[in-house]
């Protein structure tokens, strides 16, 4: 339920909108492209980052039949003007919807929204639900350094609950990135912290309390949230004057009321996550096709000391419930 896919062509948004920062692709050699921000190199990606046909046998070799696809967070464009971000979002969402239309048994898609403008975001959310048939959205762990509990985002989450659209929270714009570039620390330290930041914000801010029907999935096994729930709960108990100011409910009470993916890279950690969440709240994630994800999809779970029910829930049942889908949809 956590893979990334992008178009093989990105328009010249910088030229169209009159300012830089947007990603474009430089197909510099067969089967590979450079993701560029203006003249700055961001990342090289292979063909499986944009070609849905070659992905199907690639992930089928790992026993995977269906992938949930969403855009790459660097394409969110939250920093752009809201209207320009909407234009980018519509382009990316139309592309994903076209993939699902062509390969309905192989792909499910999550949309992206101009989260910094609730009116435009809800309009695009409704289009994605009603016109494109997408099943949910992917959002960043913060929106231009604004936490997800901020009042301007609540109408978007309310619309997701009303429309039955699932929400996947993905870390991006990592805190402290500028001061810890060495050793890949933004990805190894900043990303887990970002996801915990998002989970704490939505819990302490009362988003999950006020919208009990909102189906949220925190990627990378919730980052450092579940790993530090003891500290988080202790802070809630010992300094309620700082922590419990918007929601008096103990954060531990929300365990099992949201979903997380299985990307722990560690069998013992996944057992801990399952103990806290239950197997129907842990979905199989891979971060495919990027190297920090599970390179052999599901292998450590399939070969690990998990019950058959836990495996079936992780590999299938939990994601179907999160997305409000049925197995029969893919038979």
Q: What is the CATH homologous superfamily assignment?
A: Metal-dependent hydrolases
State the end-to-end distance: 18 Å
> How many extended strands?
11
Biggest β-sheet: count, sense, barrel? Answer: 8 strands, parallel
Question: In the CATH hierarchy, what is the class?
Answer: Alpha Beta
- The SS-based structural class is alpha/beta
Q: Helical proportion?
A: 25-40%
Overall shape: globular
Unreliable spans are: none
Q: Based on the structure given, which CATH architecture is correct?
A: Alpha-Beta Barrel
Alpha-carbon Rg, integer = 19 Å
Please name the CATH topology: TIM Barrel
Please list the strands of the largest sheet in the order they lie side by side.
1-5-6-7-8-9-10-11
Tell me what portion of residues adopts beta-strand conformation.
Answer: 5-15%
H/I helix tally = 12
Question: Gist?
Answer:
The chain has a single domain (67-330), classed as Metal-dependent hydrolases (TIM Barrel, Alpha-Beta Barrel), CATH 3.20.20.140. It is 38% helix and 15% strand.
Structural summary, described in words:
The chain has 331 residues and is α/β, with parallel strands linked by helices. The protein has one domain (67-330): TIM Barrel, CATH 3.20.20.140. 38% of the residues lie in helices and 15% in strands. It has helices at residues 13-17, 52-60, 82-102, 118-130, 154-163, 185-204, 207-210, 229-238, 240-243, 267-277, 299-302, 308-323; strands at residues 3-4, 23-29, 32-37, 40-46, 67-70, 107-111, 136-140, 166-170, 216-218, 259-261, 282-283. Strands 1-5-6-7-8-9-10-11 form an eight-stranded parallel β-sheet. Helix 5 (154-163) links the parallel strand 7 and strand 8 (166-170). The longest helix is centred in the N-terminal third of the chain and has 21 residues, at 82-102. The radius of gyration is 19 Å and the shape is globular.
């Amino acid at each position: 339920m956590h893979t990334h896919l992008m178009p093989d062509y990105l328009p010249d948004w910088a030229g169209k909108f009159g300012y830089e920062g947007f990603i474009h692709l430089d197909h510099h050699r067969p089967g590979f492209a450079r993701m560029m921000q203006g003249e700055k190199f961001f990342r090289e990606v292979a063909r499986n980052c944009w070609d849905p046909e070659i992905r199907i046998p690639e992930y089928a070799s790992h026993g995977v039949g269906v992938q949930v696809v969403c855009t790459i967070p660097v394409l969110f464009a939250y920093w752009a003007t809201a209207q320009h971000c909407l234009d980018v979002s519509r382009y990316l969402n139309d592309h994903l919807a076209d993939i699902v239309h062509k390969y309905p048994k192989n792909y499910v898609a999550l949309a992206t929204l101009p989260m910094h403008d609730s009116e435009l975001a809800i309009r695009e959310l409704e289009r994605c639900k009603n016109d494109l048939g997408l099943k949910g959205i992917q959002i960043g762990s913060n929106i231009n350094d604004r936490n997800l509990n901020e009042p301007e985002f609540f109408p978007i989450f309310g619309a997701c609950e009303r429309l039955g659209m699932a929400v996947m929270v993905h870390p991006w714009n990592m805190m402290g990135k500028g001061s810890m570039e060495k050793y890949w620390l933004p990805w190894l330290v900043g990303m887990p912290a970002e996801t915990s930041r998002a989970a704490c914000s939505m819990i302490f801010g009362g988003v999950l309390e006020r919208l009990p029907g909102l189906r949220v999935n925190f990627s990378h096994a919730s980052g450092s949230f579940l790993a530090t729930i003891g500290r988080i709960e202790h802070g809630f108990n010992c300094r309620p004057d700082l922590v419990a100011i918007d929601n008096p409910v103990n954060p531990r009470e929300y365990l099992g009321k949201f979903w997380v993916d299985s990307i722990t890279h560690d069998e013992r950690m996944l057992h801990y996550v399952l103990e806290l969440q239950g197997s129907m709240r842990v979905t199989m994630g891979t971060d495919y096709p990027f190297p920090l994800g599970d390179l052999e999809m599901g292998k450590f779970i399939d070969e690990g000391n998990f019950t058959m029910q836990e495996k079936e829930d992780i590999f299938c049942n939990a994601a179907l419930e999160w997305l409000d889908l049925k197995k029969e949809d893919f038979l």
